[in-house]
Amino acid sequence: MSNLINRSFFQDIRKILNKARQKTYAAINFAMVEAYWQIGKRIVEEEQAGKERADYGSYLIKRLSKELSMEFGKGFSIANLKNFRQFFLVFPDFEKSYTLCSQLSWSHLRLIMRVDNPKAREYYLKEAADQD
At what angle do helices 60-72 and 78-90 cross, to 10 degrees? Predict the structure, then answer.
């Protein structure tokens, strides 16, 4: 009996593992994107406290960044929290954009949300999701 594994068998196992890893990455990515949107929403709600616009000079994000970084580590810089806020403001109806946003990485979404024209942004969302 040979010590070598049948190549076809080994390739099948590799495919199974790679598919599982891709599914895991996609699930984690979506969970984090959804969390970023929810954080952005809460920041906007807290900043505006029922007003149409936030008070100038609010230190909410700075304080939140410090607290989150102490408890959760990296990833909660002032710049990132501002990105979360912008994500909510650009896509206020997450359920409407759910399908497209769930297919894209946070890096893709950060780039797309900087596009000013809503129709162009929607076009880029669809194109990026189709290319992934």
Answer: 110
Whether residue 1 lies inside any domain: the answer is no
Which residues does 85 contact at the CB level (< 8 Å), separation at least 6? 40, 43, 44, 47, 61
Q: What is the pTM (predicted TM-score) of this model?
A: 0.79
Helix (H, G, I), strand (E, B) or coil at 6: coil
User: Which residues contact residue 53 at a Cβ distance below 8 angstroms, ignoring those fewer than 6 apart?
Assistant: none
Question: Could you tell me if residue 127 is left (phi over 0), alpha (psi between -120 and 50 degrees) or otherwise beta?
Answer: alpha
Please check whether residue 103 lies inside any domain of the structure: yes
Domain of 91 in residue numbering reads as: 7-131
Q: Establish if 70 belongs to a structural domain.
A: yes
Domain count, the chain: 1
Q: Residue 104: left if φ>0, alpha if ψ -120 to 50, beta else—which one?
A: beta
Domain annotation covers residue 2: no
Q: What is the pLDDT of residues 75-113, one digit of tens each?
A: 999 999 999 999 999 888 877 776 677 778 888 889 888
